[in-house]
Structures are given as C-alpha cells and as structure tokens.
Design a protein that fits this description.
The chain is α+β, with helices and mostly antiparallel strands. The protein has 2 domains: 133 residues, Glutaredoxin; 44 residues, Antioxidant, Horf6, Chain A, domain2 (Antioxidant, Horf6, Chain A, domain 2), CATH 3.30.1020.10. Helix content is 31%, strand content 24%. It has 7 helices and 11 strands. The strands form 3 sheets. Strands 5-4-3-6-7 form a 5-stranded mixed beta sheet. Helix 2 crosses helix 4. The chain is elongated, with a radius of gyration of 20 Å.
C-alpha cells in the first residue's frame, strides 16, 4: 500500500506499551505524530525516543499525541524503555506500538522493498484531527531525526489551516508569512488590515504580529 499526503491515515488495532489501542480512537480529535523504528535497541532510535519524551510540553502545547512503532513485541519495548530512561534521562510517557507481524508497517508502507522484510524504514507521519496525513518524512538509519523541524512543520500546518497564508523558506513562528495567491488584494487588505508588502502579484508578505500590543 502506498501512502500519500492528504489521504486518511489507515486505522488499525494493535498492542502497545500502553495496552491495546485502535489508532483512530486513540487519536481522538488531536494531531498525531507516528514515527517508526527498524528494531529495538538501536543507538540512533534510542536517542530519538528520549528526545520525544523530553518534548512533552511542546506536544501538549500543540495538542499533538506522539506514538512510536517498532517490529519487536511489547515485552522487548518495555526492556528498551529502561535503557532509554537510563541513557537519555527521560521516561517514555507515550505508547510504543508492537508490530511483530508487520501489519502496521505494511499499512503505512514502512517496509523497504530491497531490505529485510522484518525491518521497517524510519518514517514520520504527521496526522491532523480529521485523520488526514499532512506530512511524511523518511530518514536513513545513520541520521537522527530533527524533532525541532517536525515541531516547526506542525506549527506551520496549524497556522496555515487557520488563515489564508503559507509559510516561506526557513520560517519559524513569529516571522512574516506569505498571503495565499487565491486572495485578491482587496480581500487580503480586509483580512490583514495591518498591511502587507507586494514583491510580485503572487508574492505578498505580511507580518501577522504587526501592530499587536
């Protein structure tokens, strides 16, 4: 199965370190970040899981539920949790999906066709409250994921869902944004009374915080 942006995230029922869950029910009306690991007790993934736990306040601020996945069984996940807490100084407070039968990995196209069929690729899926997949990232085994970038992308998605805007290159929260080309200048002036800069008819920049006290 090939996964595409904008499609509904495949639902599943599976055992996790927090008990058995049905994925869509577990997500509820929150955003979700599903990220996979090739197997337990791998060095790069150990550091990543610790970082996700350390970012608890950031996930909560954005109403995001993180959930990990590895092909090993729940018992092995619990053993790995001890290593993560010992080496990374953070206790895992989010579920880890056990996928020993590879069912979820196949649903989300996480099995590389030219590699060991029991090993998932290192994927990230950002899922919105309507259960649509909004972002897909795949990392090589040797490169740790940048969760600051994942948070930045979620900030952009949440902001642009709420306004007729897009975020430009290297944008971070608080910086100017781009007005959607779908808006006429008249409508843009109505929605952004603080004013905007027109660099080209299709490239108009607005500071959402201009004039704010």
């Amino acid at each position: 199965m090939t996964i595409h942006l904008g499609q509904i995230a495949p639902d599943f029922e599976q055992d996790t370190t927090h008990g058995r869950i049905r994925f869509h029910d577990w997500l509820g009306t929150s955003w979700g970040v599903l990220f996979s690991h090739p197997k337990n007790f791998t060095p790069v993934c150990t550091t990543e899981l610790g970082e996700v736990a350390k970012l608890r306040s950031e996930w909560d601020k954005r109403d995001v539920k993180p959930i990990g996945l590895s092909v090993d069984p729940v018992e092995a996940h619990h053993k790995w949790e001890h290593d993560i807490e010992e080496t990374q100084g953070a206790r895992l407070d989010f579920p880890m999906i056990a996928d020993p039968d590879g069912r979820v990995s196949k649903l989300y196209d996480m099995i590389h066709p030219e590699s060991d069929p029991t090993v998932t690729v290192r994927s990230v899926f950002v899922i919105d409250p309507t259960k649509k997949i909004r972002l897909i990232l795949t990392y090589p085994p040797s490169t740790g994921r940048n969760f600051a970038e994942i948070l930045r992308a979620i900030d952009s998605l949440q902001l642009t869902d709420a306004r007729s805007i897009a975020t430009p290159v290297n944008w971070t929260p608080g910086e100017p944004v781009v007005i959607s080309p779908k808006l006429s200048d008249e409508e843009a002036a109505r929605q952004f009374p603080q004013g905007f800069r027109t660099l080209k008819p299709y490239l108009r920049i607005v500071d959402l915080h201009a004039g704010a006290s």
